[in-house]
Design brief:
With 301 residues, the chain is an alpha/beta fold. The chain contains seven helices and 13 strands. The chain starts with a strand and ends in a 10-residue tail after the last helix.
Amino acid sequence: MKPTLLILAAGIGSRYGGLKQLDRIGPSGETIVDYSIYDALQAGFGKVVFIIKEAIEKDFREVFVDKLKDKVNIECVMQEIRKVPDGITVPAERQKPWGTGHAILMADGTIDGPFAVINSDDFYGRGAYRAVAEYYRDWSPDRGNDYCMVGYSVANTLSEFGAVSRGVCRADGNGFLVDVVERTHIERTPSGIRFIERDIEFPLPDDAIVSMNFWGFTPSFFSHLQRGFGEFIRKNAGDLKAEYYIPAEVNQLVRNRMATVRVLQSTDKWFGMTYREDRDTVVNSIRSLIKNGIYPENLWR
């Protein structure tokens, strides 16, 4: 069974100042999402599911679905703030989505095999897609709670224009995830890479493995999310900023030995558009990859 690519694309890009998902950064009008889908198809993925907001559905269908309908099966699923369990009241003032865990949950019922989860504004490199596709090549339902993630050396994931948030990973001697700890302020300084916690600066080795939200799951993950999000929303429904993140659920599953997560490491250099200033770096990186023959000038010709 070919894996599915699940793309989280419902974000509003507050730090970027616009919809990064639709920003055309390739020489023929390609977006980062175009390159992600192209790499996934090259690696053997067979379907794409977008998680988006209703407000941008029309634009997404014009930019991606209409263009790629003859190349891959694409579905669009809506993540909306008021899609919560029955009996929960969402404050009218709530503006933020409920987070990446809630976003994946919206795809329950559209995926019946292994799938990869990625962000729409991150360029991961083809090796990441190949690693997950290979991991699930001989997948069968008896591997129901067998998950994976693609980890990157933190030095390959930083922005030149400000601090970033990364999930710092710890793996055991067999390469299985022990936990992911979110560090919300990581940056390169003259004395090396540092993260700040409670106003204290801590060093972080260049080769520390971090999560860039590239996960591999099976359909069993939806039932875990149903339970986890139900608990989360009952405690946090009135909090205007609370979000249910993927690592929170993964950590609980690993801690309770309800699932295993293999850490697949990538040597590719990640790049993305956290800040508006990152855009030129992304454009130049894509041009360099085209020049080196990794991608054609026109991706979908």
